[in-house]
Amino acid sequence: MKLGRLNHVAIAVPDLEKATAIYRDTLGGSVTEPQALPEHGVTVVFVDLGNTKVELLEPLGEGSPIGAFLEKNPSGGMHHVCYEVDDIIVARDRLKAGGARVLGDGEPKTGAHGKPVLFLHPKDFCGTLVELEQA
Amino acid sequence: MKLGRLNHVAIAVPDLEKATAIYRDTLGGSVTEPQALPEHGVTVVFVDLGNTKVELLEPLGEGSPIGAFLEKNPSGGMHHVCYEVDDIIVARDRLKAGGARVLGDGEPKTGAHGKPVLFLHPKDFCGTLVELEQA
């Protein structure tokens, strides 16, 4: 497998409107409209940085996957990085053969960009939650 | 001020050799040789992602600026993001005028790429330590 581009850095935030204002008004970034993704339990705003994106994530509904993270980090914080790979199945099989843990049932889900994604266990990747997205 | 490109995502790690092997051998990334930066209290390896970089940071010497972070996060973790700006003094003055806190004495230091850098207080930026680097 070959590590591809950084698709985005995700930052979990307790208040998406406030976070969007920080990135748009304070830092002068270009931001999208909020997009509710109920099937992922988050509402998302993307900040376009030219070469890559920041993904601002706010919990949506009960049992959001970022709920526990925000309890531990009430001001928000960096939640994961997303790297692109050419073939997510080849990447998954090679990573699993090397002993890395893939989260969930190991089958790719459809991510925020409509492409197959997987998450890798932070303990196997320098304490960092890694999302892989098919390029 | 206008938010520029993502220069890098920094990941603090307890063992740079092991982290480099994960990024090179497990993930198939292109990595640099380790570079000791005693004036910054870290040894650095860059992972080239095509559009941006991951900066792997290991503490170097006494009182490393990432020492406390690694005590709290012994497996490592995402430490900061670095955004490029056209003029770091203009950016700093505008941010300060808006009430954002600049770390240290507020004067830019020379960063790992030989360019002026500043760090912004995580509490003002969604719980995320933000480095600004003059592009």
Automatic annotation (TrEMBL), chains A, B:
The keyword ATP-binding does not apply. The keyword Metal-binding applies. One of its GO terms (molecular function) is methylmalonyl-CoA epimerase activity. Keywords: Cobalt, Isomerase, Metal-binding. It catalyses: (R)-methylmalonyl-CoA = (S)-methylmalonyl-CoA. It comes from the Bacteria. InterPro entries: Glyas_Bleomycin-R_OHBP_Dase, MeMalonyl-CoA_epimerase, MMCE/EMCE_epimerase, VOC_core. Transmembrane segments: none annotated. This is methylmalonyl-CoA epimerase.
